[in-house]
Amino acid sequence: PQVQAARQRLAEGHDELCRRHRAGAGGREISEAIADLRDEVVLALYGAALESLGLDDLARGDGVALVAHGGYGRREAAPYSDVDVMVLRGPSAEARSAALAERLLCDVFDAGLDLGHSVRTVEEACALARRDATIASSLLESRLLDGDRELFERFCGRFRRLVRRHAPALLGAIEKARVQERLQYGETVYLSEPHIKKSRGGLRDVHLIRWIAAVRWGARQPGELVPLGVLSADDARRLEAAAEFLLWLRNELHFAAGKPGDVLSRADQVRIAEIRGCAPADGMLPVEQFMREYFRHTGEVSHLAAWLLAKARAVPRRTKLWTALFGRRVPGGLLVGPTEILATRPALRRLRGNLSAIMHLVELASLYDKQIAVPTWETIRQEVPSLAAEIPPEACRHFTMLLEHPGRLGELLRRLHEVGLLQRFIPEFAHARGLLQFNQYHKYTVDEHCLRAVEQAEDLVADSGPLGRVYRAMAQKRVLHLALLIHDLGKGYPEDHSEVGRRIARDTARRLGLDDDEADHLEFLVHKHLLMNHVALRRDTSDEQTIVRFAAEVGSPERLQMLFVFTAADLSAVGPDTWTGWKAEVLADLFHRAMQHLAGESPGTSRRDYLEGRRHAVRDLLGPDAQAPKLAVQIEALPAAYLTTTDPVQIADDLRLLAALAPGEVKAQARYQRDSGTVQFTVGTSEDVAPGIFHKLTGALSGHGLEILSAQIYTLAERMVLDRFWVYDRDYSGEPPPCRLEEIRRSLVEALTTEGKRPRFRRVWRAGATHPPAAAAPTRVHIDNHTSDRYTIIDIVTFDRRGLLYAITRTLFELGYSVWRAKIGTYLDQVVDVFYVTDPSGAKVESAHHLHETRRRLLEVIEQPEE
Prior knowledge:
Mean pLDDT: 88
Helix content: 55-70%
Strand order of the largest sheet: 9-10-12-11-15-16-14-13
Number of strands: 16
Structural class: alpha+beta
Distance between the termini: 50 Å
Shape: globular
Strand content: 5-15%
Oligomer: single chain
């Protein structure tokens, strides 16, 4: 009966609290009310357990105390969070406390709560806290529910002594545990789908501030640090506002889902933006405005946690003494020590209200590769609001010099952005702060993406490949770094972001005093920052016309080098795992081929002679077999696009594959390419084998959960067909085992030789992938009849689903098109697919009616539900 009553009370109380939440109650108000409700239920069940077990004397304080800890202990409970309690026992109460804990666990669970419990003596609890930072931080939030108060006070006294005695080690352990948690759930504040508790700046960092205050200063609440001069009153108010917002948000996620869940998905973002009354404005969606509010709060929490942790760390006296006695003195009263730059008292006075002096310090930190001492940086943070609006030319000079040197550039730009100094030099950063990119492609906000792009470029200093060589050879890197820093700041406006970015680049160049050449390069890089990505990943780079047009648009070797590095850094900064070996190969190939045109590097022979030279190389590789009539015909008829983009060794292997085919036979080969981490599948057959070869092969590959990156389709002499696919096999981190490759190879053959065989598509899980939210960009089908002289190009951008690629390629087949090239791109749940097609006669599709029908049919099949 007691359990049934508890269950009923919880249900009624939960419904009432949900109504209060919906009526506008605050986050902390509801969280504390949930804790109070749980206190009522747990204590009722605790009392019933004591009575039924005949342990009523324990209730009068005979060696057992019921202690809440963690979030429940600090009365910050979410609707479906755990209930963490500890049964604290005296030495003589072992058997009775074990029976009590077992009964309490069963009853609380049956009542509908998830109970996290332990039975410990005072000594055991303190010993565990000494070894485990997670236990220690949870016990910092202990609260007596019932039982032996004297025993509880004895535990609190001993635990406080332990914390004081081991404060530095405990702080280090708590910090280490928090870093590991952030690495798992989000090391940056600016994630597109953050974990509101465990990502950087989330509720866990609010808790971290409480733990730091308790361990270092003995404070129960962060507000107690204000009279101590550790936190300012403004910082304390911002922290409380952020905590209130995050508690409300967590309550909303739990109430809406009817279960625990702390990931702020895109669908939740759209829904909550509507609840909070956000309206579209200035080119921003309501969801983007809501997420800007989220990032503002979490950004402030992240900064305060980092600052308080740095202040709490005990700086070794020897390091301070070494810096003071032996640090190198530089102009402006600064000391450069072994690990940091420290401002002396005269230097601190000079920094106040002096933007040029501040930027000189930041530039020196880059040149000497040192951190800026925490007290020095805090002085700068406090001075930012009082700085004059006008930017002195000397400050601009220090800023542009900072951009010249990789090393600490990304870190220093981040710090300037955190305190609001970066927007002094680039005002558009104020608009970009916390600006969500509401698509499945970008994982970070606009400002975070731009800062990461600079960091990705810096990392190329140690790269041994072509990107690293090009980056290191750049005499002046500041234009590249500045372009990366501002390239996406045009987002969040009604106009195309590249056009807005072009104007931002011109204004930035003028404000910072760049010369004419630098200003031209900056404007080009920002305006055309998607050009190389688009050509490399969405166009047929085997077409020489494509290369010539691209080279002409870039215009010079210097610009091509910058655009090459820029594109790689931009792609790498999109999110984890977006930069791959395959993309690196494709981009490098485009760079080298375009450089041949721009730098005058050419084979020195006519195109006709060059193609004949390739055929001759193939004949040499085939040896006497090249004289066989079947092979001789194929060699003479090899298409130019195939000859120029395929290695002669590969061509020889392809021709041997085709020559060995019997009438009606299909053969498939698989080759793992270690450099790019991809698998290349080659299928050889005849056009007579089956209609719709391409879409059937894509169906077979997709059916195995493979991610198709690119495809080349060649029709050779005597109606022979050679289709090649490059894929990622997400089931394996390295080379797939032979049995896996054989299974796929067999499926490719069966797809063309088994009558009526249709592929079956398995579900593939991708981290971060969600169903397309209501506010997402619509599907786009763009038909391009201008880029290529030979093909009509169809670009498709949409959200992925099982069997989508097969459905698209089957529709192209049903429309009577031949697919000659395909570039397939998948980014989480967003796909960008490009197909080069002709009509049945091999010509471009010129009929306006046919083009309209093509677009209609493709949109129709794309928007159909999963098969």
